[in-house]
Amino acid sequence: MNFHFRSKLLELGLQEAFTNSMLKEKEAESFRQGQPVRIMNPISDDMTTMRPSLLPGLLKAVTHNVNRNLEDVRFFELGRVFQNYRENQLPEQPYHLAVVITGRRYRESWNAPKETVDFYDIKGYLENFLAKIFLDNYQFILYPKATYLSAEECIAVEADGEILGVCGRIQSDVLKAFDLEKPVYGFELNVDKLAERIGFDRSYQAISRFPYSERDLALVLDDDIHAADVLDFIREISGNLLYQLDVFDVYRGDKIPAGKKSLAIRMRFQSYERTLSDKEVDKLFNKIIQQSQKKFNARLRD
């Protein structure tokens, strides 16, 4: 399974790094889960604690490269981590997979924009990797519990109520501990939990030969209501005629009251059995509008 994961990460253009499993306790501190796993007789002050995460080692590798003017870094690593030490018991030793990126979005060229990577780049790497390994039935959720990641730019991968990994921007104070000034983004996944959920049997569904109907909806609602909750509710009440559902715009500003946002949603309705009539689609669309307004205390945007 590790070979399978490694090959998919290489396909994404990432470079594999191999880092030491032993760290300074200070380097491991921000990433630890439970009691740290300390080494009884360390051979060096730089190797006193077993790594609780792959990210500290990768950050050290980033520092090493940045200090040598190699500032556009795309690294991944697969390996064991050591967590939740309990006296007279072995620590947990799951396999993890981690990726870090920093620097320019595009290779330096006369015709390439001078843009740096951001949260959506690392999220894109994560989504592409999960698509390549055929992980199904997962969702991204906001996740402020990873203390080494910025709360404003942090999500978790959740499946069946279990957290499989986290993704986001490394906290600036964590970066300072590794002598890094520019933003670094990363994700880390539990390989053992991933492997339990991956099936290699594929099934396919034919494309409907009947046309779809499209409707757009813009709701003005409270800013703290998550788009995912709105989409889940619409799916729940729409039945099997709702073929596709996407958010295509989020707006705050002029003509939108403070503490509110406008959420624009595009819906496609389609049947595998017949061509849907406008009357049929409009009836379902109006039901979605009315029940969404009631559920989220929302109104239609003018």
Order of helices and strands: HEEHEHEEHEEEHEHEHEEHE
Number of helical segments?
8
Strand order of the largest sheet: 1-4-5-9-8-7-6
The CATH fourth-level homologous superfamily of the largest domain? Bira Bifunctional Protein, Domain 2
Shape: elongated
Instruction: Report the β-strand fraction as a percent range.
Output: 25-35%
Please report the total strand number as a whole number. 13
Helix vs. strand class:
alpha+beta
**Poorly predicted ranges (pLDDT <50, ≥5 residues)?**
none
CATH class of the largest domain: Alpha Beta
As for the CATH topology of the largest domain, it is BirA Bifunctional Protein, domain 2
Tell me the domain tally. Answer: 2
User: Mind telling me the C-alpha Rg?
Assistant: 23 Å
Terminal CA distance: 52 Å
The CATH architecture designation of the largest domain is 2-Layer Sandwich
What are the salient characteristics of this protein?
BirA Bifunctional Protein, domain 2; 302 residues; Alpha-Beta Plaits; seven-stranded mixed β-sheet; 2 domains; single chain; 28% strand; four-stranded antiparallel β-sheet; alpha+beta; elongated
Description:
With 302 residues, the chain is an alpha+beta fold. The protein has 2 domains: 196 residues, 2-Layer Sandwich (BirA Bifunctional Protein, domain 2), CATH 3.30.930; 88 residues, Ferrodoxin-fold anticodon-binding domain (Alpha-Beta Plaits). Helix content is 28%, strand content 28%. It is built from 8 helices and 13 strands. A 7-stranded mixed beta sheet has the order 1-4-5-9-8-7-6, with helices on both faces. A 4-stranded antiparallel beta sheet has the order 11-12-10-13, covered by helices on one side. Strands 2-3 form a two-stranded antiparallel ribbon. The longest helix is centred in the last third of the chain and has 19 residues. It is elongated. The chain starts with a helix and ends with a strand. Belongs to the phenylalanyl-tRNA synthetase beta subunit family. Type 1 subfamily. It catalyses: tRNA(Phe) + L-phenylalanine + ATP = L-phenylalanyl-tRNA(Phe) + AMP + diphosphate + H(+). InterPro entries: aa-tRNA-synth_II/BPL/LPL, Fdx_antiC-bd, Fdx_antiC-bd_sf, Phe-tRNA-ligase_IIc_bsu, PheRS_beta_core. Keywords: Aminoacyl-tRNA synthetase, ATP-binding, Cytoplasm, Ligase, Magnesium, Metal-binding, Nucleotide-binding, Protein biosynthesis, RNA-binding, tRNA-binding. GO terms for molecular function: ATP binding; metal ion binding; phenylalanine-tRNA ligase activity; tRNA binding.
